[in-house]
Design goal:
Elements lengths: L12 E5 L6 E6 L3 H20 L2 H17 L1 H12 L3 H21 L7 E2 L5 E9 L2 E5 L5 H14 L3 E5 L5 H12 L7 E3 L4 H9 L5 E5 L2 H14 L2 E5 L4 E5 L5 H13 L9 E7 H21 L8 H16 L3 E4 L14 E4 L6 H4 L6 E7 L2 H9 L3 E2 L1 E5 L3 H10 L4 E4 L14 E2 L2 E2 L7 H4 L1 E9 L6
Parallel strand pairs: 5-6, 5-8, 6-7, 8-9, 10-11, 10-16, 11-14, 13-14, 16-17
Antiparallel strand pairs: 1-2, 3-4, 4-20, 9-19, 12-13, 15-18
């Protein structure tokens, strides 16, 4: 993205192919320049009345939107499977997670409040959380309903109006989601626009936008942050990750390989917090690599791995793998583009990796498990920390001292010990460095969507 808006947002069509077989899902028109500006203007007109709506009524409306989403869950799951290749059952899980998130914010929004302050006993001092205004939400394709529900729900329930642009890789899902939710909300509170980069660029450049909330690539997130310098918009962004997994010498290598496979191959590696690079202690490296390769073979032979979102993504994943092999990585499993239709890519295990290889230095976003053998936990921890991203990391260790050191030394927003996808409900994290900034989910997202006003009230002096 660039910081300057184009003179006009070109009128184009988004044609989506099913990544499972290459068939056409459908075509969606990209919003024109006039339609984008009109959507923001509509949100601005509706902002004052929605901000003045009682929090309890906003929560009630969001609860109704959640119930409508639940009624259409199967429809959206099947559409998501066609657009992104994510299996219907997993897609349904994402939709229902979105339903749960909307219900959560419907409950939390009305009790989101300020604080009393201690001042003079003859005065009242307190803070008020006020909506920021118009929120532009730019959401991804890899879990399109769940992620969008979080940003839209938190924005709406705190009194903001929203213009939502879903990813151009799943415009049908995004448009239908917008229709379903908007029918439960007052006119103008939620507007959906579809389109590619030009539409996103225009939205981020408009001065009448108060919040830019983005989940997606680091390059796009950084462009959004630069655009906000000119407009003054508040930015919330969860961007790319290159999450490390450190395997200590005192853990069961077969169990550790199962954790690594889960982290690297779930959703074909297309998860923001996927395991992207692995550092395994030399003492357990051989059985770990054997077990990890077997985990990959099992997925490849069983046909359980979903395709990547499209052929463009597959080309990028294979480019990274091929480049790393050319620089000395050893293929233990996978690494070959399969014949036939669709955008499938095999679960791939690479050994002999080094920090300079592309698969270790950049987010791959595919089912690739690159492994570097290290001589100590200290070395693994040091290499895990030496990265420009800061989303999440995992350590597998039986030593509490090593776990505590990981907590202290890894510069990430989320650290998981002995479970690659562990975490309690209601958690929230602040990504760091190239991975973004601000709370992108959880109760703290309500704070991001509001701004604090400090109030001081006291009696005037009496006359005479």
């Amino acid at each position: 993205m660039t910081t300057a808006a184009p003179a006009t947002a070109p009128t184009t069509e988004l044609t989506v192919l099913d990544p499972r077989d290459g068939s056409t899902v459908g075509t969606v028109a990209a919003a024109t320049d006039e339609e984008v500006r009109a959507a923001v203007a509509t949100a601005r007109r509706a902002a004052r009345d929605w901000a003045r709506t009682a929090p309890e009524e906003r929560g009630k409306a969001l609860r109704a939107a959640a119930d409508r989403l639940a009624e259409h869950a199967q429809e959206l799951a099947e559409l998501n499977a066609r657009e992104t290749g994510k299996p219907v059952e997993e897609s349904l899980g994402g939709v229902m997670a979105g339903v749960g998130t909307l219900h959560q914010y419907a409950e939390l929004g009305p009790v989101h409040r300020g604080h009393s302050l201690r001042g003079s006993v003859l005065a009242a001092d307190y803070t008020v959380a006020e909506p920021r205004g118009v929120v532009v939400a730019l959401t991804p394709w890899n879990d399109p309903v769940a992620v969008a529900a979080g940003l839209l729900g938190a924005a709406v329930v705190t009194g903001n109006t929203v213009v939502h642009k879903p990813s151009e890789r799943c415009p049908h899902v995004g448009a239908r989601l917008g229709q379903i939710l908007a029918e439960a909300l007052p006119a103008g509170v939620l507007t959906t626009v579809t389109g590619g980069a030009a539409v996103g660029e225009l939205l981020t450049a408009l001065p009448d936008v108060d919040v830019l909330a983005h989940v997606g690539s680091t390059a796009t997130g950084e462009a959004i942050a630069r655009a906000a310098v000119g407009t003054g918009a508040h930015v919330i962004r969860e961007n790319g990750g290159n999450d490390a997994l450190v395997v200590d010498d005192d853990v069961d290598p077969v169990w550790a390989a199962g954790q690594a496979a889960l982290g690297a191959f779930a959703n074909s590696g297309q998860i923001c917090v996927a395991v992207e690079r692995i550092y395994v202690h030399r003492a357990v490296a051989e059985p770990f690599l054997e077990a990890l390769a077997e985990e990959a073979r099992r997925r490849n032979s069983g046909g359980t791995l979903a395709p990547l979102v499209d052929e463009r993504m597959r080309e990028e994943v294979h480019r990274q793998v091929a480049d790393s092999v050319a620089h000395g990585a050893v293929v233990l499993e996978g690494a070959q583009v399969p014949e036939g239709p669709g955008a499938f890519y095999p679960a791939t295990v690479l050994s002999g990796c080094t920090p300079g290889m592309t698969v270790m230095a950049e987010e791959t976003f595919g089912p690739v498990a690159p492994v570097q053998v290290v001589d100590s936990f200290d070395e693994g921890l040091r290499l895990a920390a030496a990265d420009r991203y800061g989303l999440a990391a995992t350590v597998l260790t039986g030593r509490i001292a090593h776990a505590q050191r990981a907590v202290a030394e890894l510069p990430v927003g989320t650290l998981k010990v002995n479970n690659v996808f562990g975490g309690a409900p209601g958690g929230a994290a602040q990504p760091r460095r190239a991975s973004g900034a601000g709370f992108g989910y959880g109760p703290e997202l309500l704070d991001e969507m509001t701004q604090v006003k400090v109030v001081h009230v006291e009696m005037p002096p009496t006359a005479g």
